[in-house]
User: What shape does this take?
Amino acid sequence: MPKVVFACLLAFAIPAWDAEMTRPTAGPVTIMKAVDVKPGMKGTAWTVFEGYDAEPVPLEIIGTWKSASGPRQDIIIAKMGGKAIRTNVAGGMSGSPVYIDGKLMGAVAYRLSTFSPDAICGITPIEMMLEINEFDESRPMDAKVPGQAKRASNSDGPAFQSQQLIPIETPLSFSGFQPMVLDQFGGLFSQAGMTPAQGGAAGMLRAGKPVNGWQKALRPGDAVSAILVAGDMSLSAMGTVTYNDGKRVLAFGHPFLNLGPVGMPLSKSDVLMVLSSQFQPNKFGNATEIVGALRQDRHNGIMGVLGEESPMIPVNVKLRSYDGSDKVMKEKKLHFDIFVHQKWTPSLMMITLFNSMSGMNEFSDEATWKLSGNVELAGGQKLALQNMQAPSEAPMPPAVVLASWWGDKFNRLFANTVKMPDLKAVDVTIDLIPERRTAVIEGAWIANPEVEVGQEVPVKVFLRPWRGERVERTLKVKIPVDFPSGQHRILLSDGDTLNRTQSFAASANRFIEIPEIASLINQERTNNKLYASLVQSRPTVYADDKTLPSLPSSVLNIMQSGRASKPLLTTPETMIEQSSTAFDFVVNGSQSIRIVVK
Assistant: This one.
């Protein structure tokens, strides 16, 4: 079809369009109330199809759908023309301002059909969006967070979806991410109403203060992005600005994640193109410069403040790959900043670490990963984290297991019910060793099972590496001078065996505070060491990050009588760690040796 003919068809798709062609600017604007909107009215929506400049899109009002998004929350239905005939109502158009007779009426926020040839949209009235400014620190009950179970409903089928209003999908741009990351973790974002897609971000997209010129940024109709991760890899969600009073901006016309009060950077965006599709049309683009901060994420849209800064967590990652002789072949450093939120931060830590590992050229099925990390908290407290992961018969790849372990440490910090943690810096080193390094504790031996107090007993331990020769080590276990006589055990074990009871005890207290959580994490044994412990048949009490071994019966009875102020966990045995030895492989299993103390 000739371009001239196609242009004529677009021009006459909605007849008698006589709307103003002057692009809206920031500042005071006259509002058209929803009650004054009538079927047949002609209006103009403004949105970006390419680059930075918003273009006018003609539309015609079909009518008002009463209480469509909630009690007394009407949605205005309209048919879009112009370029929207080709693109349909696309992801990223959320928030596109709609004007009738020069008055701001609302924001394009919903689509009505998945496969309809008509570009039918739902418009959130501007009065409802302006209410966002009046909200306090209350938090919505239905926030979209990782791990949230998807609600089952009849709307899962395309046939039903064609009969209801659906919030326009928010394109979530992954810049600097490997495709396997989207395959592995895309579901976390899909369940929150976002469409994961490969995207981009300019090199200037760094967390920090807004750039110079922020005062003139984010005019109505401009593309805007909320930033979850910024730096050498970035995650950003794109929408459109509806309203700008010179300081505050409203956008989207529907919730982003419905988090309520929030602190997240806002940036300008450069739209590369709008992918036309009857099924899932979307804008694609790059987040560019930070110009403000997102402060409210509500049912009827988001509200940000220009010129304000939103603190993020700085993360430094060092990646090293080794050859077969344990020499460093390559080293790469990454830096990025992560959005602060009690539910999203742990998941973003997990995803970014997995992506960092996935980007190494030496990534392979039989590789072993070794992690060493430091987390600095406000007040000078630090976490020292170490772990190794190697291939096993488990269905989950070791890189995913290690990333999940890493994310769990942050989840424990952020899930506490007492106080929001304040993380100042995160540094982590990942070593990639090009072979499977695991070993199982195969046996243990002692020359004479009869020992005396004060004696240092040599214990031989045998480990069987993966497809390797048996390894023999000798550990020395000292019998304390006050150790009771009788039958006891020497336990040779991996770190998980010793961690298990204490971790379970800590989870029993819902009100454990950050210093105790940090202490517990720092006490955890690593999985690349072999531990030798003395075990006696006397009870141990665990309370938060404290271990109370070998308690007398009288003390234990008092503690169990209900006088203790915190939840307690009691075990019938006491394990006292005496020594450990480190290996360059993951240690699994345990062995016990019976001894008699004279």
